[in-house]
Specification:
Strand order of the largest sheet: 4-1-9-10-11-12-13-14
CATH architecture: 3-Layer(aba) Sandwich
Low-confidence stretches: none
Largest sheet: 8 strands, mixed
Shape: globular
Radius of gyration: 18 Å
Structural class: alpha/beta
CATH class: Alpha Beta
Number of domains: 1
Helix content: 25-40%
Strand content: 15-25%
Mean pLDDT: 96
Distance between the termini: 21 Å
CATH topology: UDP-N-acetylmuramoyl-L-alanine:D-glutamate ligase
Number of helices: 9
Order of helices and strands: EEEHEEHEEEEHEHEHHEEEHHH
Amino acid sequence: MRFPFQLAAGRRFDCAGFGENALDHLITAPHYPEFDTKTEYVSHELLAGGQIASALVALQRLGYATAYAGRFGADAEGEFGLSTLVAEGVNTDFSETVAGARSQTAFIIIDAASGERTILWRRDSALRYHADDAPLEIAALARVLHLDAHDGAANIRLARCARQHGTIVSADIDNIDEHTHALLPLLDVLITSREFPHKLTGLTDERHALRETKSRYGCPLVGMTCGTRGALLLIEDTFAESPALPVPGGVRDTTGAGDAFHAGFIYGLLTGAEVESSLRYGAVVAALKCRQTGARAGLPTRTELEEYLQRL
């Protein structure tokens, strides 16, 4: 199936992202600890993460020009997080460091046996964007704008501006807030966590929930990531599925797998691939991410992606 929209040409960036960055404390444990117990952990790493920032790193490694708009705290963690994007080649001209703010942090417990993770996170309210703060200039500079729907009023304003300039708007959404219903009609690509369509519609059947989401909000393409079951998309009136793919060497950590999937899917869109191939790209990037700890360490280059596909 072909995508039901056209990408703009002649843009400075292939994909711009607006949303979260984070500093992740990754704690690998032999098993997830029971309540009121003590468990010796296997390892601890301090790595950069965040939904949008990590997706842009993935696209940059896959050979596309990216830009990140977001806020960092004025602390060592923020300096580190910003430096990791610069080192990857992601443009950070539209990012800000907020005086007096603490950077967003997360503590992530990884089950060594399965690679599954549990996340505890906190974001300083001083990092929040309001509608008047939205970096509107970035909306006209990219072929795709990728959002995470945090700071909803700013997301709405930025998505409207992107629509006016013919920029395709993609979103990775997990939760519903007071801005969600106004944001969804502005999206071209809505791929969520598997729980989101049920939260939104009250329907337990996944396909019915996706149909209802599309009917209510008019998004050309809606879908969900389903963990070990892969991903499910609805485009026009047709469903497309992709299974999860094997992780070379086994799963070490699922942190950021959804972010990686979004990047792989957008990669397919940017290359001119059909929807089914883009789904496969998303599954490959997610699988390769899971071979290493953290949201970014395992993200593949384009050569690694192509070599993996040749082995399938």
